[in-house]
């Protein structure tokens, strides 16, 4: 798939031109959303015969890099819809039809939000502080607080989860609620340093209902090899890495432009592109970014190809997310240094990228979790000194 055919330059320039205003006003990217919807972007993972783009995960990685280079917050917001539709595609590729309805509803225009994150829950998918209460007909009602729920103004479906403690053993329940049903509300609390246009408001669940036919899994608390856990982790980490890689690619472009544009009085008015220190900084950033791209592409291809890495998948995915977000932050900081003091002004695109890229610190897997996952894969779990 040619990313420029799906996201042509003219569309991206309109999206880029609106990004400063959304950021300044702390406003949802509504015009971007409408144009991307009209272009079929939210149907990227839907099969062509069903009206979608028929994209693979590797295709969407390239698309999200391109979109993020124009407007990071727009790309991050759209990412959350693409995560659920991407997970449904992972299921289909592995012969599991339990999420087919996600692709069917996406084809019909429904918009999916990712209502998973909870403040203080560092177990992420493996435990929950939200209550999932079973109902006689097999439905569940969810009560709790979900944070960082992107697309707050426009989602129509939200994938969420909670813990059912009514049985002999607690179970984690995953299901989908609808916007047009009661039992939920947003807080108007998204006033952040960066990624402002994503409008990832806190969502309060107050008995929000997921019907029985929208309950997709009930799983034990703790690590689990179920396809849902793998699918969410795989698509979330990979597409997140794509967004931050796109930010880094744009920052490097701006650094090169600045090096050619800025002149050095000390060196007789020659452009900074001839300064050895500036050249080293740009080359160092490019080398770091170049190391992320093959890793990102290989992991996306392996997910598409149903490659069986077994338990090694989680270390690979955690490592990808960590490397991509940390590299992006380093590249943006290098671009700020190369760009000079002008990048410190609010009118500079670089200062917005600098604020946006910092959000990568807070997405799972965080640096501590990523290193712990990789260490366990290589060294095994830490033994209990008491032998229990």
TrEMBL record:
This is Acyl-CoA/acyl-ACP dehydrogenase. The lineage of its organism: Bacteria, Bacillati, Actinomycetota, Actinomycetes, Micrococcales. Keywords: Oxidoreductase. The keyword Oxidoreductase applies. PANTHER family: ACYL-COA DEHYDROGENASE, ACYL-COA DEHYDROGENASE YDBM-RELATED. InterPro entries: Acyl-CoA_DH_C, Acyl-CoA_Oxase/DH_mid-dom_sf, AcylCo_DH-like_C, AcylCoA_DH/ox_N, AcylCoA_DH/ox_N_sf, AcylCoA_DH/oxidase_NM_dom_sf. It comes from Sinomonas terrae. Transmembrane segments: none annotated. Pfam families: Acyl-CoA_dh_2 (PF08028), Acyl-CoA_dh_N (PF02771). Residues 240-363 form the Acyl-CoA dehydrogenase C-terminal domain. Residues 13-82 form the Acyl-CoA dehydrogenase/oxidase N-terminal domain. The keyword Oxidoreductase applies.
